Amino acid sequence: MTELMDDRHSAAELLVQCLENEGVTVVFGLPGEENIHLTQALDRSRIRYVLTRHEQAASFMAEMYGRITGSAGVVSSTLGPGAINMQLGVADAMTNSTPLVALSAQVGHDRNFKESHQFVDLVNMFAPITKWSASVPAPAAIPEMIRKAFKTAETERPGAVYLAVPEDIDAASADPELRPLPRNVVRPEAPSPNQVDRAVAVLREARRPIVLAGHGAARGNAADALARFATELGIPVATTFHGKGVFPDDHPNAVGTIGFMTRDYANFGFENADVIIAVGYELQEFDPVRINPDADKHIIHVHRFPAEVDAHYPVDVGIIGDISASLVALLDGLSNHRCPDHGPVRSSSLLADELEHGRVDDRYPLAPQRIVADTRAALGRDDVALVDTGAVKMWMARLYPTYAPNTCLVSNGLSAMGFALPGAIAVSLAKPDVKVLAVVGDGAWLMHSQEIETAVRERIPLTVLIWEDNGYGLIEWKMQMELGEHSNTAFTNPDVVTYAESFGATGYQITSADELLPTLRAALGDDGVSIINCPVDYGENLRLIERLGELDAAL
Ligand SMILES: Cc1ncc(C[n+]2csc(CCOP(=O)(O)OP(=O)(O)O)c2C)c(N)n1
To answer: Is 206 in the pocket of ligand 1 (CB under 6 A)?
Structure first.
């Protein structure tokens, strides 16, 4: 039987002190029998415990908390099934370069060596989807292990860390002398002058350089330096899906977003380019073959760490260091240089035309372009849209004008479905001053719709916009494109208004195109939880591919 102890000396209390020392203010989780002391210690602390209805949802919340704040989000679960449920968000964070610390219970040391109820080898299961996966062997290890967990998760390239806390450690007492270790943060280096000089030499010869700005530029707060770099040199800038907003789409040099499944407007900028300046780009964001099919472009890789090897990403010069400092050093080295005039950015006028046509398209179900245009009109420049995986992501990523980093959040590393609604809960908590919209397909929506209960109970305002097509639209799109037919993609939906209201949320059903914008404004203006169901005409999906194909031929 577990000995009752003075809580001030418990291992669980020490663990919570260590979390507080790391600046943790919220833990997303779902408790179990084997971590009751941690659950109690969290309850007695200043940390808010956001109780969720699924550990996978909690893991997405922690991921998006980490993505929007830059500090590791924390998720807590029980052993076995609870921990396994956390794995999708952990893998999503890892592949999306996002700091996250996952804590779970585990069976005690008295039975972890034999066949035992609810025991699976969690440390080994988490190892391939984390930067570090370990089990706490004794209370005395807690200060070092928690410090190491946060340092590892938050240091570039950020990612996920997993720690198992066995049941006997959860219930143990700890030496009262043990204290959290002071935080130390790994600072970015200045770039090496030699690397900068070599890149300057490449840029002086460049005829048509282009910037590709990725996720690392958003994490590194490089938006201002990037705007100065591109404006002073006269270089066009495209972003990846994760980089959306790091270069404002209303800047005259903005090319748009790269990553759509076929050649899109933004690709035009790369076709004639001879030099790509990749700023914070990570190859997991999309395959470089799409912008460098002949592997003949010169590449300057600006990031905090060297590039992955890829036949279509032959790096001429790598500049490793603080991204803003690197861009400023390049500008200094290129003083008085201006790149040859790239002419008007053709893709931006094509995108603007497509959006403008959408804005006045009255069809019902609604054209995807109409939904994107109305979503843009309803949100302010700094408000945040989280866009789930599906055809909906393709439309929003390529067409939604974005003006600030991390204001259009997608998962494009693992591209997991279901993250946006739970993620919106975390973003709303982290950024109470902005409006938060989860944009989801009807498939992804029902994967985590239970979390409306969490949002309502915890009084966390957010709006969900469902693009309803009664099917897994992206898969239908892909099957039609490649096989000329589709199967096993159709389903039916519950009545969204009744469903939302049964949770205490407000439900809206869109019944004509002109209802969407006022409904979005009403829902976003309300400080409760609102769910809007909007039928979409995905007949546009194949029409878009045809139009892009025709543009291709016309070039
Ligand atoms: C967890 C998970 N399961 C399956 C997939 C594969 N997948 C990608 S998009 C998609 C369809 C999404 O459907 P829906 O949410 O309705 O959005 P739509 O494509 O209709 O806009 C599927 C099944 C995935 N990425 N993640």
So the answer is: no
- Phi, psi angles (nearest 5°) of residue 386: -105, 125
pLDDT value at 7 more than 50: no
H or E segment and range at residue 440? strand 436-441
Residue-averaged pLDDT of the chain: 95
Map tokens 């507080």 to a residue. 20
Closest of 229, 506, 265 to residue 397, by C-alpha: 265
Under 8 Å CB-to-CB from 463, ≥6 apart: which residues?
435, 436, 437, 438, 520, 523, 524, 529, 530, 531, 532
Write the residue with the smallest CA distance to atom 9 of ligand 1. 390
Nearest ligand 1 atom to the CA of 388 is 15
pLDDT recorded at residue 553: 55
Nearest residue (by CA) to ligand 1, atom 6, is 417
Say how many Å lie between the CA of residue 475 and the centre of ligand 1.
7
> So what's the pLDDT on residue 530?
98
| Rounded alpha-carbon distances, angstroms, from residue 58 to 137, 198, 336, 425 | 25, 46, 51, 10
- Does the beta carbon of 368 lie inside 6 Å of ligand 1? no
| pLDDT of the residue at 8 | 55
Q: Is the pTM for the entire model greater than 0.90?
A: yes
Q: Is the CB of 390 under 6 A from ligand 1?
A: yes
Residues 6+ apart with CB under 8 A from 285: 214, 215, 240, 241, 242, 243, 259, 412, 413
Interval 511-546: pLDDT, tens: 999 999 999 999 999 999 999 999 999 999 999 999
Show the tokens assigned to 46.
């200043």
pLDDT of 6 above 70: no
Nearest CA owner, ligand 1 atom 23: 472
Task: Specify whether the CB–CB gap between 31 and 165 falls below 8 A.
Answer: no
d(CA 352, CA 296): 31
Q: Which helix (H) or strand (E) holds 483?
A: helix 473-483
- Answer with the residue of higher pLDDT: 454 or 349: 454
- Which residues pair with residue 440 across a beta bridge? 466
CA of 443 to the centre of ligand 1 (A): 6
pLDDT in tens, 236-272: 999 999 999 999 999 999 999 998 888 888 888 898 8
